[in-house]
Write a structure and sequence with these properties.
This protein is an alpha/beta fold. It has helices at 14-24, 59-68, 72-78, 113-125, 174-180, 254-262, 268-274, 322-339, 345-370, 384-398, 402-412, 424-432, and strands at 6-10, 29-33, 82-85, 90-94, 97-98, 107-110, 130-133, 138-143, 148-153, 158-160, 163-166, 188-203, 214-217, 226-233, 237-244, 277-278, 283-293, 305-307, 313-314. It starts with 5 loop residues before the first strand and ends in a 6-residue tail after the last helix. Bound molecules: flavin-adenine dinucleotide (FAD). Residues 10-16, 33-36, 47-48, 50, 53-57, 137-138, 167-170, 197, 285, 287, 309-311, 317, 320-324, 326 line the site of flavin-adenine dinucleotide (FAD).
Length: 438
């Protein structure tokens, strides 16, 4: 098959939903499969263990989702998501100081991941040519030796498809699935970062955080390794996430959790937890490594199949990039489907090239920053020590320089390419500024 009759999307996480939105406009029918019972409420679910934890959608991701699902921003706000300017409403502590508040002109939404997922799922479910099948696990792929031709469900049923979009996330099994068909599998790059998290939803008097979106505390590396986030989310709740790199993490019991918050170098999150009532248990998560599958390096990637989202690249969650990258990939796939007339290896090559371009900057940011810790191991991107020295200086300067802060925010939100940090004007400002710790 090489037409556009049926696209099968495996996985109804953020990548799967975004891809289903893209495919719905270009295929006669879309079938979206997920192994989970998908809830009618904004609640975490088993197949997405990270859904208990804080998820920040960067400004570029919000724009890409709005392109795929026009009006979704307003729906999220109507459902309780809080719009805010990252430069003003989210307190940001890094390199020994709370950074001065500078309007960035970029809007973000404070909400839980389940609310985002539920809202996108409802949009997809309302499309006349999309069918969502929950509680169905995919067990493999079918193929004809050169390309993928469909999926095999765990009860043995096969579903032929013109294009299979594999959005099964970080835990994907598709290397085994492709290998079983004699199709090539990508090299994997893994950078070990030893990140661990624990998260709790609480309710409390907003105190100093009234009318704000919360507080983000990042460590001064390599001496400090602890991080914390308090985010105002729908339902008048605060999502408190605490974690760290390479062995620094809270124990998931109330005393250990509160003590860890108190140990952060900035007091706001510890104070908030001290006056909070728990809404949920404390849930822990381990994220041992950032992982990237280099599909773009395959000479002949299989036709009829595209890995997307975390199934290509799963980043250190502390930097909040995965959902944005998934949304940007979905928007890019739409443009390619409009240009490439079939679903062959040619489409796959073009898509993986485009995905690699989208992934390059966030991967450099995340992995580069993680290599500040000597315990981080794995393939190091080129020039990392030099870039990290510049990045540290830039951030020390951006704490108090409004223009640098704004530029840094736009790049970090993936709205502006990183070249904006290396213009002669920015370099001069960075070098001129006092850069001793506050
Ligand atoms: C702790 C943590 C915090 C994070 N915080 C952020 C953040 O702040 N901002 C951000 O942008 N990103 C964050 N991320 C990353 C983000 O969760 C993902 O990048 C994003 O959701 C895209 O993932 P995905 O849709 O590819 O995979 P997932 O969200 O993992 O979804 C995979 C889906 O596939 C289904 N599935 C899997 N296997 C099968 C199968 N065999 N058959 C049928 N269905 C299957 C699963 O049930 C699931 O629904 C975080 C990640 C973690 C771990």
């Amino acid at each position: 098959m090489s037409g556009r009759s049926l696209a099968v999307v495996i996985g109804a996480g953020i990548a799967g939903l975004a891809m289903a939105g893209t495919a719905a406009g270009r295929f006669d029918r879309v079938l979206l499969l997920d192994r989970d019972q998908l809830p009618d409420t904004a609640t975490p679910r088993r197949g997405v263990p990270q859904s208990y934890h804080g998820h920040v959608l960067l400004a570029a991701g919000q724009a890409a989702l709005e392109e795929l699902f026009p009006g979704v921003r307003d729906e999220l706000v109507a459902a309780g998501a809080l719009p805010f300017d990252f430069g003003v409403a989210l307190g940001f502590y890094r390199y020994g100081a709370v950074w001065s508040r500078v309007p960035s002109g970029l809007e973000m939404l404070a909400m839980t991941r389940p609310l985002l997922e539920l809202t996108l799922r409802r949009r997809i479910a309302a499309l006349p040519n999309v069918r969502i099948r929950p509680s169905v696990a995919v067990a493999g792929l079918t193929g004809d030796g050169t390309r993928v031709t469909g999926v095999v469900l765990d009860d043995g049923e096969t579903v032929p498809a013109d294009l299979v979009l594999d959005a099964t996330g970080r835990g994907m099994r598709s290397d085994r699935w492709l290998g079983a068909l004699g199709l090539p599998t990508p090299d994997v790059v893994e950078v070990k970062i030893g990140v661990r998290y624990a998260t709790q939803l609480v309710r409390c008097d907003d105190g100093d955080l009234a009318d704000t979106a919360g507080m983000l505390v990042l460590p001064t590396p390599p001496a400090e390794k602890r991080t914390g986030l308090a985010l105002a989310v729908e339902g008048d709740r605060w999502l408190v996430g605490l974690g760290g790199w390479h062995g620094e993490h809270p124990t998931p019991d109330p005393d250990g959790f509160r003590a860890y918050a108190k140990s952060l170098p900035e007091p706001t999150i510890g104070d908030l937890l001290a006056r909070a009532e728990p809404v949920t248990d404390i849930v822990a998560f381990q994220f041992p490594s950032s992982r990237r599958r280099r599909f773009e390096l395959l000479r002949e990637p299989p036709g009829g199949y595209l890995a997307v989202g975390d199934a290509i690249c799963s980043f250190n969650p502390v930097y909040g990039q995965g959902m944005t990258v998934a949304a940007l990939e979905a928007a890019a796939l739409g443009r390619l489907l409009d240009r490439v007339p079939d679903n062959s290896g040619r489409l796959a090559r073009a898509f993986y090239r485009e995905a690699a371009r989208i992934i390059r900057t966030p991967w450099q940011f995340a992995v580069g920053a993680d290599f500040v810790y000597p315990e981080t191991t794995g393939p190091r991107p080129r020039a990392i020590p030099l870039l990290n020295r510049y990045s540290t200086r830039l951030q020390l300067a951006a704490r108090t320089d409004p223009e640098l802060r704004r530029t840094f925010t736009w790049v970090q939100q993936l709205v502006t390419p990183p070249g904006a940090l290396f213009t002669p004007r920015v370099i001069a400002r960075v070098l001129r500024r006092r850069t001793d710790p506050a």
